[in-house]
Design brief:
two-stranded antiparallel ribbon, alpha/beta, single chain, binds zinc ion, binds NADP nicotinamide-adenine-dinucleotide phosphate, six-stranded parallel β-sheet
Length: about 375
Amino acid sequence: MHMNFKFKIGTKAFFGKGCIESNKAVFKEFGKKAFIVTGNNSAKASGALEDVVEALKECGVEYRIYDRVLNNPTLENVKEGGELAREFGADFIIGIGGGSPLDASKAVSVLACNSIEPVDLYKNIFENKPLPIIAIPTTAGTGSEITPYSILTRNDMKTKKSFGNEDTFPAVAFLDARYTESMSRQTTVDTAMDAFTHALEGYLGKKSTPVSDILAVEAIGIFGECIDSLLNNRLDFEVRERLLYMSMLGGMVISHTGTTIIHGLGYSLTYFKDIPHGRANGYLVREYLKYNYEAAGEKINNVLKLLKVSSVDELGDKIGGLLPCDITLSDEEIEMYAGLAMQQRSTSSNARTVVLEDLGEILRKVFKGEGN
Ligand code: NAP
Ligand code: ZN
């Protein structure tokens, strides 16, 4: 097979305990005024805000905090953040939190310096270059600190949609696993599942490259190492650090490959049923792997080997142990979710070429217990 690929990660990442403290001068590189974008709890609970504020004070950088980012941020939400950042005259943006605040910070960085409506973010061409972003994750899942993507809730379309281009990669990411220690076990599991599915979908999908495969294999192997710790709730610092590393690798993978149908289907579970993003993905893994086996059997066998399980069902049972699922969907819901996922761009990069009926069937198997 010919090798033909592009490779770029537009983010400079600092990884390790105390990485903000040891690299404080970075905060001076981007200007005099920082606009901090975060949720109402994560920045404080994780201790990240305190470290950032200390670094900013030491660097003589003025700052303002916007802490009203919602889970699964909406267009309306980022509009407000963008307006306040512009009013403040921000030189750069600091995103602190899970994927929700980090994704919001990307939208804010564009809106702060472009007079456009949030819906125009999806044009992906901006007159003025977005403000530089420093991203600090407090969950270990989305990898948003190292991807260009910003996934926003589109109430007008009843789904979530992503925008992003080469200029929306955060300029800098600080990854310190101490900031993930305050996460609940449930959010830890949910977000770990998100990171795993990034690696999995990227690895099996049509856009995979030799480089993304190396990253994906490493991430999947780490998930295999950590799955029993997640099951037994043994989440010491070492495990947290491995999970954060996995999440970063997953972000690097999807920066090149995008996601596929797990994400496409999962968005409806989040939008209509309020199921956290990573958990929604986790529910779908078993049937996703069965569905794709005919198109990507060799790679799926390698995944099973990396995870030290002997079959897709053994993996499905393990994930079921982590994420018990008691959700059922009506036929109308299944039809609607399948239709919405079919419209996601990422569906076309799935390993096996997808038709609408396939998506309905996957959902029926997971949420109506058919075929089990
Ligand atoms: P999240 O929605 O950012 O956060 C979930 C919850 O966990 C929030 O209540 C949050 O509090 C809390 N939390 C976060 N960190 C915490 C900590 N250290 N201690 C205590 N509580 C903490 O969850 P997420 O799974 O990280 O992000 C999901 C979002 O990312 C979705 O919108 C998804 O579509 C998107 N996503 C983006 C990408 C990408 O490439 N950009 C990839 C996958 C998913 P707060 O209320 O304070 O925030
Ligand atoms: Zn995801």
